[in-house]
Amino acid sequence: MPKYRNSLKVIEKSKDPKMSRRRFLGLVGWGAVAGVGGVLGAAMLGYLYPNALKIPPSIFSIGRPEDVLSSEGRVFIPAQKAFLEVARGRVRCMTAICTHLGCTVNSAETGFKCPCHGSTYDLDGRNTGGPAPLPLVYYQIYKGASGDLLVDKSRVIQIPKEAWFSSTA
Ligand code: FES
C-alpha cells in the first residue's frame, strides 16, 4: 500500500497484490503466442493425419451373385455415381462421371448423355459427341471373401467387353 492514501508514490517491495501493467501485458503477449501456436500446431497435425478415413471406400458391394445375376437391365447407383448393367448372367459396372468436366451422365436411349455440355456416349461408354475427350471407364468386379460381388473403383478397365463379370469366369 502507498504510504499515504492519495499519494502516487508506491513503496517498493510492498505486499500489494496488484499486477503491474508490464507484467499484465507480458502475460497477454505470451497468451497470444500460445494461442497462435496452438492453432498452427493443430492445423499441422490435421495436415499430417491421413485422410484415408474421410473419403468413401473405393470398394463397394453390389450384393449376392445369385441376386445380382438373376436380374436384367441397367441401374444407376447414385451413391457411387456408377451404372450397373446385367445381361445374360453377366454384370459390369461403369462410371457415370463425364470425362469432360465431371458431371454425372444420364442414361439415354442410344447410350449416355451428359446434361452439362452435351457430351454423348454409346451403350459401351465410348464418347461419340460433344467435348468429352475420353470414354467412360469400367470398374473391376470380383467375388469377395464374404461371397458378395464387390466393385473396386480403384481398378479401372478401359475395354468394355473385358469388364463383364460372370460367376463361371
Ligand atoms: S461435363 Fe459432361 S460434357 Fe461437360
User: What percentage of residues falls in helices of 4 or more residues?
Assistant: 10-25%
The CATH topology of the largest domain turns out to be Rieske Iron-sulfur Protein
Q: What share of residues are in beta strands?
A: 25-35%
**Ligand species:** FE2/S2 (inorganic) cluster
- Give the N-terminus to C-terminus distance in angstroms: 95 Å
Number of domains: 2
Mean pLDDT: 87
- Second CATH tier, the architecture of the largest domain: 3-layer Sandwich
Order of helices and strands: HEHEEEEEEEEEE
| Structural class by secondary-structure content | alpha+beta
Question: What's the story with the biggest beta sheet?
Answer: 7 strands, antiparallel
Structure summary:
The chain has 2 domains: 1-51; 59-166, Rieske [2Fe-2S] iron-sulphur domain (Rieske Iron-sulfur Protein, 3-layer Sandwich), CATH 2.102.10.10.
